[in-house]
Amino acid sequence: MKTLTNSFSRRTVLKAGGAAATILAAPGLVRAQAPIVKIGLVQPITGAFAGDGDLARIGAEYAVKEINDAGGIKALGGAKIQLLIGDSRSNAEAGAQATEQLKTDGAVIVVGGFASGIAMTASQAAARYELPFIIDGAVSDGLMTRGLKSVFRFGPSFGASADVALKNLVAINDAAGKAAKTVAIVHEDGLLGSGLAKLMQQRLPPLGFQIVETISHPTPARDMSNVVLRLRSLNPDLIIPSMYFNEFVLLARTMQQQRVKPKGIYALFGGAASSYKFVSEFPDAAEGVMDVNHWGDPKNPTNAKLMEAVKATGKFYAYNTPINYSLIQIAAQAIEMAKSTESGALVEALAKNEFDSGVMPYGRTKFDATGQNVNALPLNTQVQGGDIKVVYPEQFAQSKPKFPANG
Amino acid sequence: MKKAELLCALAFLIVLGLLALVGLPGNILNLFIFMMIITLTAQGWNLLGGYGGLSSFGHAAFFGTGAYAMTVLQTSFGINAWVALVCGVALGALVGAFIGFLSFRAGLKGSYFALITLAFAEVLRILANSWDFTGGAAGMMIKLQNGFAYLQFSDRRYFFLILLVFVALALFLSRWLERSAFGAYLIALRENDQAAQALGVDIFRVKMQAITLSAGLTALAGCLYAQNFLFIDANVAYGSWISIEALFAAIVGGAGTLIGPLIGAVLLLGLGEVTKSFSGGIAGLDLVVFGIILVLCVAFAPNGIRGFFANLKRRRSAAAEAA
Question: Which domain holds residue B257?
Fold first, then answer.
């Protein structure tokens, strides 16, 4: 009895001592080797958004390999890039902690963020050290109004994306002889959905669309029957959904079951409508759905290679891969231009120069005074023949929009 | 024994403070800051759930109210951060009193009380998610302004030291509670509320006082959370995660004990970080290891870590006596 007690206690002490020593020693473990430039990637590797984080990681790793194979950072004597991954665990405070960890581990620049709430705290943590942070596809307008000099955003803001979405909708509808006149908005009641619903309610009527109903639902939603029954009785020409993947799948499948066939489904950051997973699992429900979202330039040959790389891992391509691939490319260009890994020099290089946008359809990336990429642009995609095609704007289009989709 | 515990806890806080002053890497400092915020939340929970036996699943209601009050008062009304902090604590306490009044007047206890607190937190989350003045689903940001008056510091060690002071004050509050008549009434109603009532304890009044105090302390943690991360939304402030963290830290550390919440928060969050560094890049492995260790912890220490050590000591002295 006595022996047992003693051994347990010793083990407990060892465990606690080992744990404490690791906490204190961990920051020092990952230094030494040179010449290496460390770039941090903050993504949700675990938690609710783990799938997105994984796709982002694939893109970033692809870019790192490409740059290193081509001789590394030439301005620093061919220094190789080492990618450090910070897991934001799909929540805001872990995002800040991941950034702190990356800084401690020696990252000279950090990219990523994914969701607006995570990007908010993660970039804030980086800004404390004036460590340059480039946000990927997190869209909240508030991210770039904080006056943080070392924070930049590669992708378009929500406001800018909504402008593009509406302009393109009008163009597509006009080309179809104003086929759609009535609109129903179906949205989740969180950040994504309620923000979009409010904006659409203000902006659609002046463009000649009549909003027949705005229907909200919680996330997660288990059943969409009532929503679809309502849609059936309203019979709108166009449905504008704004929700996450699972809910959209549920909505689209329920609409298919109840044979609700509007002239079009037009989403902004709909997720599912730009998701190969959705297209592959529910091809009939997905057919014809349009989305305005971040998307890789289909005419860029590297984009096809990224698609292959994702496919090889047994996953489905989504925008996270090209956008994070491109972010690493921009970070590498900034280091080349700054000829230094010093934070101040990197922030200055990012603020003053133009960059090649990798595989994103942004032309040349140029950050304005707030840190926003002025040339960032979402693309219109549509599910056509079981594949996702870019249908608008024309310079990136792989095929023409099919609208009305059920016409 | 209790005094020694208090002194140990205070010495631990002083060591943390000194470590911070000597210089800690940013990630460790950030972890310690978060640990102390969770400690405060768990200390708040412990006043009601630990000492009073009124387990709440909805301390997010108080945490979120503090966080939102702190943010809204500063950003929308331009009120000084310290004044906002006081108002946040008062509002949190008020929400606690309101929920307590409705629940205790109806005689709710046990799982019914736990569920009603959970429901209130959910209602507040949905409201905060929809109202414009709480920023709706987009959440709210506190403007970055460094200075003592703004309770924001370019050197975050100052913020950490302030947090340590608050945790120390909460320890004194718990110590006072353990020694006061009010604390004795609270523990009495935890053990057997009908017997306590028969002995003349006004159990409604004691429960009301306990929930108000508990809510105020948890709201303080919410205020400091908002001030540290400078961003909140409905899911962060009123999400069930914080209710779980609060009761988890207190229960694993030792519910109804002075230092239980501190031990629980430090061990749980410390363990999370340690397992993360051992995961070797395999996504989620750290969470699996964390879960296994937690299961073992709960299996071998059903009365919390504090209870485990107390048991060990008792068994040793019994063995020594026998020898």
Answer: 2-322
